[in-house]
């Protein structure tokens, strides 16, 4: 088939998944990429596609305040929308069989979905979380006007996200938890197209394990770094492992190449995952593929990938319980190695990319046929 692919994803697990999916889809399809991102970094999509079309759009730091923040919001409601209309017209004119649409870091569900005439398959990892979750509410002590502005901004974005998402011919997602979340937010029951890990890239290195706990992600926001620090402090100093945090740069991009990331996984005793309601959690799979057991909160997608007591531990969001499991693994290296071997076997057998790509190909075919039997039922 001839497929158009759209994305405006930030760096992170979703971007890695996109790269891995396109790397495999190119074996069966002709694919062109339409994007707002000129510099893709380590996961450059150009070698995976026939053509790449970049539509320049100046982004504003999402943490900006004052006029830069207001200006960025206004442009996302005005300038961004006609740009997506232009992209949709270009795609429709090129005669593709279907369009594989990924999320837009500026609006979540892209405006593009509302303008496309070509059948579209929307790969949605999560709805606009700040519009639904109490934990992501505005907690700053701000004035009446700023609070009112934030409430209006979120309400508009929530409405746009839902409208755009429901415009897709089909919606798929990467986890059962994500499917439930989407059903709650959009009133649509998507199909699941599982993510995976390349077991030839993520492998145990054979190097000596260091007495440290690995944390991957920003130290602010919903990734749970504060909980990770609190948990480590519960362990006696004489036995306390070092907490090693791999954090992104201000741009959101990790400067650490994937080869070095693999070495970090392979040399740690355990990976600690404390994100709040993580939709999937690709880092947990990557670590397990490197024979590193995982301690993760019993929430979101972690419940689907980690086998409690076999490939790691699922725990309550409680520092004492987390500390207990970390102490057990770092204090019993033989048990940690046994769990690590089980973890890799589990990933190789159940979370390889071939399984997910087979599903993705199936859904692309159904979408291209533009049949009346929608996947969103």
Which SSEs are present, and which pair or pack?
Layout (H helix, E strand, L loop, with lengths): L1 E7 L4 H13 L4 E6 L15 E4 L12 H11 L2 H14 L4 E7 L7 H4 L4 E4 L20 H23 L3 E4 L2 H11 L4 E2 L17 E7 L8 H9 L8 E5 L11 H10 E6 L8 H8 L4 E4 L4 H4 L6 E4 L3 H13 L1 H18 L2 H17 L8
Walk me through the structure:
- With 377 residues, the protein is an alpha/beta fold.
- Helices cover 41% and strands 16% of the residues.
- The chain has 13 helices and twelve strands.
- It has helices at residues 13-25, 67-77, 80-93, 112-115, 144-166, 176-186, 225-233, 258-267, 282-289, 302-305, 319-331, 333-350, 353-369; strands spanning 2-8, 30-35, 51-54, 98-104, 120-123, 170-173, 191-192, 210-216, 242-246, 268-273, 294-297, 312-315.
- Strands 3-2-1-4-5-6-7 form a seven-stranded parallel beta sheet. Strands 9-8-10-11-12 form a five-stranded parallel beta sheet, sandwiched between helices.
- Strand 11, helix 10 and strand 12 form a beta-alpha-beta unit.
- This is Glycosyl transferase family 1 domain-containing protein.
- Residues 256-345 form the Glycosyl transferase family domain.
- It comes from Candidatus Chisholmbacteria bacterium RIFCSPLOWO2_01_FULL_49_14.
- Residues 12-198 form the Glycosyltransferase subfamily 4-like N-terminal domain.
């Amino acid at each position: 088939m001839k497929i158009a692919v759209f994305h405006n994803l930030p760096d992170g697990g979703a971007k890695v998944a996109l790269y891995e999916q396109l790397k495999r889809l190119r074996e069966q399809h002709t694919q062109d990429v339409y994007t707002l991102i000129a510099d893709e970094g380590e996961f450059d999509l150009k070698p995976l596609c026939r053509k790449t079309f970049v539509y320049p759009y100046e982004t504003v730091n999402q943490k900006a305040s004052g006029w830069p923040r207001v200006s960025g919001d206004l442009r996302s409601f005005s300038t961004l929308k006609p740009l997506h209309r232009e992209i949709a017209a270009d795609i429709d004119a090129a005669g593709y069989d279907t369009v594989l649409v990924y999320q837009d870091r500026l609006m979540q569900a892209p405006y593009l979905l509302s303008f496309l005439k070509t059948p579209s398959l929307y790969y949605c990892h999560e709805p606009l979380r700040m519009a639904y979750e109490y934990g992501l509410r505005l907690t700053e002590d701000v004035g009446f006007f700023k609070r009112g502005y934030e409430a209006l901004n979120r309400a508009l974005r929530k409405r746009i996200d839902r409208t755009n998402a429901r415009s897709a011919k089909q919606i798929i997602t990467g986890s059962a938890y994500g499917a439930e979340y989407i059903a709650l937010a959009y009133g649509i029951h998507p199909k699941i197209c599982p993510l995976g890990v390349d077991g030839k890239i993520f492998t145990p290195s054979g190097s000596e394990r260091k007495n440290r706990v690995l944390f991957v992600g920003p130290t602010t926001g919903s990734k749970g770094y504060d909980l990770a620090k609190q948990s480590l402090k519960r362990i006696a100093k004489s036995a306390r492992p070092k907490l090693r945090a791999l954090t992104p740069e201000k741009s959101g991009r990790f400067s650490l190449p994937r080869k070095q990331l693999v070495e970090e996984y392979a040399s740690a005793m355990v990976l600690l995952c404390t994100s709040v309601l993580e939709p999937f959690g690709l880092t947990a799979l990557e670590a397990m593929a490197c024979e590193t057991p995982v301690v993760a909160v019993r929430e979101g997608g972690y419940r689907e990938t980690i086998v409690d007591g076999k490939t790691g531990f699922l725990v309550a969001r409680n520092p004492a319980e987390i500390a207990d499991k970390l102490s057990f693994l770092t204090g019993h290296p033989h048990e940690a190695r046994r769990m690590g071997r089980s973890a890799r076997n589990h990933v190789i057998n159940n979370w390889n990319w071939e399984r997910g790509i087979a599903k993705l190909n199936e859904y692309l075919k159904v979408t291209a046929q533009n049949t009346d039997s929608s996947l969103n039922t």
